[in-house]
Write a structure and sequence with these properties.
This protein has 13 helices and 6 strands. It is mainly alpha-helical.
């Protein structure tokens, strides 16, 4: 029967409280995301399924983190586990749990990042954005594989990871592995955070609304801050007394995927705050029209759009042709077919130009008719 350690220290209470509160928060926000999709008359897409899967593994992760306190002795000195509680195996149970924690951490964060990237490529249908997003996909895959394999390949044989009595066993430096995966984790966070910012800043809409959108996407900086803090916390781990020195790393590692899932859902909860939606998911908001702002040093041929209506028309400035804009249900086919998903987050815009060419013959150049020619002949 597994020994259950009492919860006595602030470190233990912090891990348990964080696991419970942020698990409930992540589940609640994912539920609100599904509700927002329903209210907007939109079907769940791949980004939704990925975030739901990430939430599932995040909750399991929190359960293992709490179990590391109750069954692994986290929060107590290794010597105290043996002498006070009579657990001769010491931190063996925690070291086994640590392998599971590392794998769940990589899976939950990886799925969440895939969800955010998938959603972003449906919002920013721009070739440069899609190319960078694909490269980021590859980086996240490399990071997730590295973090997962390092849990299995750190020690040979594998059981030597928690059982140091095995003869001939050896381990690499776990600190190097943790720092490398932590840095790759931080870099991918920074790329996902900064990727949409240039496109948001160049939007043709009032400055206040642009700043609001930038702030909404900018909340993804919080997991990045946690990731940086986590790397600093790992440097304080003493592997000879790991159960006493590891709680801050476990706490930050548990906090990071919960924040990522929560904030990855918050950015698309707009339908819950009002507005009417058509059957195809197009939003109409009853907000008063505002005068569009002009952009300095802009070489655009069109004035900024009034973005408070879903029925948008371009207004040419002294252009010798007419242009009309309509939303199309067909998938975007540009950029060498890099985007084929019909369920784009902001719909599609197609622009159609029509003009008429007429030939006008000047009167003085018109050839004489037969009757006129005959009249001239009789006169002569």
């Amino acid at each position: 029967m597994t020994f259950v350690f009492p919860i006595e220290t602030s470190k233990q209470r912090a891990i348990v409280a964080c696991g419970i509160v942020f698990s409930l928060l992540a589940v609640a926000v994912v539920g609100l995301r599904v509700l927002a999709r329903r209210k907007a008359n939109r079907l769940l897409d791949m980004s939704d399924y990925l975030i739901i899967a990430s939430c599932f593994f995040t909750v399991i992760y929190q359960g293992v983190a709490i179990a590391s306190v109750l069954a692994g002795g986290v929060g107590y000195h290794v010597e105290e586990i043996r002498t006070r509680f009579g657990v001769e195996a010491g931190p063996t149970v925690f070291l086994q749990q640590q392998v599971v924690i590392q794998i769940l951490w990589a899976i939950s964060l990886g799925l969440c990042r895939f969800s955010i990237l998938n959603l972003s490529t449906k919002i920013f249908v721009v070739q440069s954005f899609v190319v960078i997003a694909r490269a980021t996909y590859a980086l996240v895959v490399v990071w997730a594989i590295t973090a997962t394999l390092s849990a299995f390949l750190m020690c040979r044989p594998f059981a030597y990871t928690w059982d140091k009595t095995i003869e001939g066993g050896k381990c690499g430096d776990p600190m190097i592995s943790w720092v490398v995966t932590g840095v790759l984790n931080m870099v991918s966070d920074l790329i996902i955070l900064t990727l949409p910012m240039p496109y948001l800043f160049r939007l043709e809409m009032p400055l206040v609304k642009r700043l609001i959108l930038i702030a909404v996407f900018g909340i993804l900086v919080l997991p990045t801050i946690v990731s940086i803090t986590r790397i600093a916390a790992m440097s304080t781990i003493d592997f000879d007394d790991i159960t006493w020195t590891v709680p801050h790393t476990i706490l930050l590692s548990a906090l990071e995927p919960c924040l990522a899932v929560t904030l990855g859902c918050v950015i698309i909860l707009r339908p819950l705050f009002g507005g009417r939606y058509t059957s195809d998911g197009t939003a109409t908001f009853n907000t008063p029209p505002v005068d569009p702002l002009s952009r300095k040093n802009s070489n655009r041929r069109f004035r900024p759009l009034n973005d408070d209506s879903s029925e948008t028309r371009l207004r040419p400035e002294d252009v010798g042709y007419q242009a009309s804009v309509a939303k199309s249900p067909e998938p975007f086919r540009g950029f060498d077919n890099v985007v084929r998903d019909k369920n784009l987050e902001m719909g599609l815009i197609s622009i159609k130009h029509e003009w008429t060419v007429e030939e006008e013959i000047r009167e003085e150049l018109r050839p004489p008719t037969s009757s006129t020619h005959q009249a001239k002949s009789e006169g002569s």
